[in-house]
Description:
Elements: H1 2-17, H2 22-45, H3 55-75, H4 83-98, H5 100-106, H6 112-135, H7 141-165, H8 175-200, E1 212-216, H9 218-229, E2 241-245
Antiparallel strand pairs: 1-2
Helix pairs in contact: 2-3, 2-4, 2-6, 4-6, 4-7, 4-8, 5-8, 7-8
Amino acid sequence: MLVSIAEGVAGFYIGNKCNINPGVAKTIGVYGDFGMGLGLGTAFLTDYTDDWGSKSLSTCVLVGSGAGLFGGNLLTDNEFYTVGDAHVLYATGLLGAHLPLPILDAIGVKDEKTMVVASMLGSVAGLGLGRKIARKHDFTTVQGIKIRLSELVGACIGFGVASIISLDERVEGSSIFITSSSIGAAGAFWATYIMYAESAEIHEKNEKDFPLSIDIKPEGFLALAMKKNFAPNREITLPLLSLTYKF
């Protein structure tokens, strides 16, 4: 508990010192959480979870969390995120981790380690999708929370529907629960995302991955025309073009 408090205070101090905005800070925290999850998954794959008090298990979780925070810091460098964007990123990561499970179940894969690997890869893919969405949108905090919660509600509704269906004696196994909750979560996420996507969309933030950007400055041409027609002897210096190269 003391370590957790100390970590929170240290994070607040570093964020304040480095002038990190709340959205970026929360986004880095999301990567840290998923890094911790990937570390726990790695511990499961290496059988370190057989002893929950082992140093190997703790090391995997700690290294995963640290790697997630470090990677999140690199991925958010020179980029702007709102708190709402961070919530959407979290939602896509969780959705990515859940969706491979019904697919594996449908094709008859029952091996637990295979499912864990698929879920880990799915979460990474989900984070990639979430990052792509966040770079083109500025979701408000309320919008982000609604999108994230709608995914959870959709999964719960799907689980509830599966519970009702499972009352039929002809339906066996856990397949219906995994599939139904996945469909509910995915459907609710996309429905809520579509609801807010247009209002949150921005066009000037990293719309293209191409590093070279050339922009025409209409105010420069306007200033040039004004100088020629109204103030020929006055110095007006505004750029006509803007060339930006993102490293």
